[in-house]
Write a structure and sequence with these properties.
Elements (H helix, E strand, L loop, with lengths): L10 E4 L6 H31 L6 H19 L1 H7 L5 E4 H34 L4 H4 L2 H23 L12 E2 L6 H5 L7 H35 L3 H7 L2 H20 L5 H25 L2 H21 L1
Parallel strand pairs: 1-3
Antiparallel strand pairs: 1-2
Helix pairs in contact: 1-2, 1-11, 1-12, 2-4, 2-11, 4-6, 4-8, 4-9, 8-10, 10-11
């Protein structure tokens, strides 16, 4: 190795999800259907919020932002995972691996901050309804969103700083279907125990800290509603359960992967599949099932798209 600090590994090999042809076929069908449904559902939410004037409010602006992130999740690792189910040898270039890690942590970091912002939005709507539009102004919403993306970029670059100068000179097999930072560190040609610990602390602190902030905020909101129960609060509270469900689905797999020291490989893969395929599909389902305005708007936009398609034919 020239100078002892340059990578000679040009690609990494994925072991994939399973070697069973039957399970691969099932995963191909399952993941393809969920992938298409996730893309369609989240794009429909974004279009509905953009087109329908009844949804031009801070809550739906943040919901559309979450759907944009879910679209990003769908595009980061899932297409290659589906493609690799056709292939015997599953490889990714060194640059592609680094890029994948960057976007995984970027989207994950932004989503954590966005979920906190959405919790704040529900707090204002439920606890300070008369001042809701004044506090949650368009300017503040854009500022929140810009801050979420800025923090996501900082977090992702900080993660990449752990590996960008590491030497990779031999082992290049990853027991996964995507590039995962903790697994990649173990392939470096030097002792990375301290780096692995720092990655776990960094990601773990971000995950657990964000999760605790969200749980405490939801407890405070519930206590406030319990003390000052009213019809308006009950209506606003109906969306809170959807937020709580999404938070548990998102943080559950993430905290396990990045805070558990030595997770079982199969459990790790299952949680990764859940994080990259199942959750982007469940988010639009959860929000639309519990929101009449969103369901009505999505039906209206869907009919508009169908009519427009027929006219163009």
């Amino acid at each position: 190795m020239d100078g002892g600090n340059h990578s000679v590994v040009s690609e990494f090999v994925f072991l994939g999800l399973t070697n069973s042809k039957e399970i691969q076929l099932f995963l191909l069908l399952f993941s393809s259907v969920l992938y298409v449904a996730s893309m369609a559902g989240n794009m429909l939410i974004v279009l509905s919020v953009a087109i329908d004037p009844h949804l031009h409010s801070p809550m739906y602006f943040l919901l559309a932002s979450l759907s944009v992130l879910d679209l990003g999740v769908c595009c980061t690792a899932t297409p290659k995972m589906i493609y690799d189910l056709f292939r015997t040898r599953k490889v990714i270039s060194f640059g592609g691996c680094i890029t994948q890690i960057f976007f995984i942590h970027l989207i994950g970091g932004v989503e954590m901050v966005l979920l906190i912002v959405m919790a704040f939005d529900r707090y204002v709507a439920i606890c300070k309804p008369l001042h809701y539009l004044t506090i949650m102004s368009p300017r503040l919403c854009i500022l929140f969103l810009a801050s979420a993306w800025a923090l996501g970029v900082i977090h992702s670059l900080f993660q990449l700083a752990f590996i960008i100068d590491l030497p990779f000179c031999g082992p290049n097999v990853l027991d996964s279907f995507y590039c995962d930072l903790p697994k990649l560190l173990r392939l470096a040609c030097r002792d990375t125990y301290k780096l692995q610990f720092m990655v776990t602390v960094n990601s773990g602190f971000l995950c657990v800290g964000s999760f605790l902030i969200l749980i405490l905020s939801y407890i405070y909101i519930l206590l406030t509603v319990w003390k000052h129960s009213s019809g308006g609060s009950s209506k606003a509270l109906s969306t809170l359960s959807a937020h709580v469900t999404v938070v548990f689905f998102f943080f559950g797999p993430t905290m396990f992967v990045y805070t558990w020291p030595h997770p079982n490989a199969q459990i790790d893969k299952f949680l990764a599949v859940s994080d990259s395929i199942l959750i982007p599909f469940l988010n639009p389902v959860i929000y639309t099932l519990r929101n009449k305005d969103m369901k009505t708007a999505m039906k209206r936009v869907f009919r508009l798209l169908v009519v427009s398609k027929k006219i163009h034919k």
